[in-house]
Amino acid sequence: MIKHILNSIISITLMILFTQCNSVQISTQDKNNKTDLVTAHNNLPKNESSTYHTFKAAFKGIKYNKCMGRTAMCPIDCGNSGNFATFKILKYEKLEGDGLTRREQLKKYTIKTSDYYKNSFDDPNTKFIDKLKLNDEVDIEVVFIYDTTIPIVRTIEKIISIKKSH
Question: pTM of whole model > 0.90?
Fold first, then answer.
């Protein structure tokens, strides 16, 4: 019982820390007036169930996806319907896994950019992606934290930074 409570506290603490790491994103402009996101990597939580990916990818476009409608929340509130941006991974720069996590390189990466009604999310990453052209090369840094305190492992995915490759 105490172990379960401690695991829950650790999980909640990680989620709070993880949510707070969103606030370390800083928008900067280079001499060409292009906005990039930069993040203080040191402020990210590390645990035995996280992986960090840094890679170069090519933008392959945005497509609308409607979920299969298998739950009561489908298709509007399940989170699987909306516009999704797809990137083909060209080259891995870094892949770190702590402890229990799998260390597999991704072949493609997908980011949800809108809700079911095609309303774009109001965040810097979505605004940046909306301005990309087909085959634009970007550098992406992302962290996956796996919540192993529940019977079905839940993945929390957070984009640390996405910017055009130089």
Answer: no
